[in-house]
Write a structure and sequence with these properties.
Elements: H1 8-15, H2 26-40, H3 47-56, H4 60-63, H5 65-73, H6 82-110, H7 116-131, H8 142-156, H9 169-175, E1 183-188, H10 194-208, E2 213-217, H11 222-234, H12 238-242, H13 248-261, E3 266-269, H14 276-290, E4 294-298, H15 311-329, E5 333-338, H16 363-367, E6 370-375, E7 406-414, E8 420-427, E9 432-435
Parallel strand pairs: 1-5, 1-6, 2-3, 2-4, 4-5
Antiparallel strand pairs: 6-7, 7-8, 8-9
Amino acid sequence: MLQEREVIGEVINVLREAGSRAFSLEKHQQLYDLLVKLYVDDQPLDGVVIRDELIRRGLWEKLGKFDFLAGLISAVPSALRAAHYAGIVYDKHLLRQLIEATHRVTERALDHDQPARAVLDYAEKEIFDVTERRVTGEAQLLHTLIQEAFKAIEQRGSDALTGVDTGFVELNELTCGWQPGELVIVAGRPSMGKTALGLNMAEHLAIVRRRPTLFFSLEMSRQQVAQRVLCSRARVNAHTLRRGRHSSDDLRRLQQVAADLSDAPLLVDDTADLTILELRARARLAQRRHKIEAVFVDYLQLMRAPRCESRQVEVATISRGLKALAKDLTVPVIAMAQLNRSPEDKSRKGNRPRMSDLRESGAIEQDADVVALLHREAYYQTPAARVKLSDEADAPVAADDPEENVAELIIAKQRNGPVDTIKLSWDKRYTRFGNHMPGREPDYYTPPDSPEAPF
């Protein structure tokens, strides 16, 4: 920086938020701050200007006069590798930060009054804070970015999907699939079908498209998830199965589907009480082992972030962590989320949800690239107006409302595309969503011996 004024901008970019704190010696910190100030003020950087400024600050004698500056200038052959040297300084700064964090963790661990889980949470937070301070790539010229964009367009061909297949035609049309590096929030009130929708998309991606998919189930066990997938794909009523009233045909369907799904690359992690750090570590491990192409989280508010002073801050930390995970792995992260009770407020006109109904933190809608709000108007109708199932045949009786089996997916935010409302078909017997096709059954899985085309 003393040899060449123009490299100061490169060094500032490498050291980022650490600034002068990246240097271990106080005198180097003071000189760095001085050089940056002169650079920002567009002042010339020569021996006379630097000496006068050091004298004005009372540092000339303290730092060692010309001997100090001459020793620094002669320490490197040229200024051409300033950014590389700055990277070394920043790496050493991170290592010092890590050492300090481990010292604090050790002190907590030696405090016998602290419970083990509290110490582990503290350690996760300290290490997480250090690992987040990483140097990112520098800005690129628009010319280079345009060339890369054209290459991507040429490679794309006629395929309209630039991301992973959602399994729903209209949703693919609107979003071009879930895009790599994006955070997608699928939100709704309890019992609206968030888990079912997430599972439907995950199973389509893993079973039909054969893409490795990771599903974090914080609400249900792995066995429950597997049973849901089996019943949903085989068109078997899960409630009937639990009561032991399934038929031989139901059992045959389940066996056929189980055989077909035996090699499906769907990974299910049902670890409860996950912190954002644990989830990111598990996702990275799955990425290394299985090359996953999408991550599903059910659901966001069940996760934890240690050492947060309020629930709003905790949810904001989780939301930022999920967005960072999507960018790190370059895969879409689809997180289910709970809405607050505002859609059920009697003073409010209608029950349709809004983006502002996202529960506990406005940071979710800020971090998300796509916000999809799940709504079923029939849910708010009186029980008499809903479909009733016969105990004998488990067959739906005609509903008073023809929209009973219709759900809406309201795309309230899409950072890189339009917003709109998409209709989906809903069958509560099999907890399954399908493409909305009036007058036709949803496109469920069809057994191999069926004359109908398979899903």
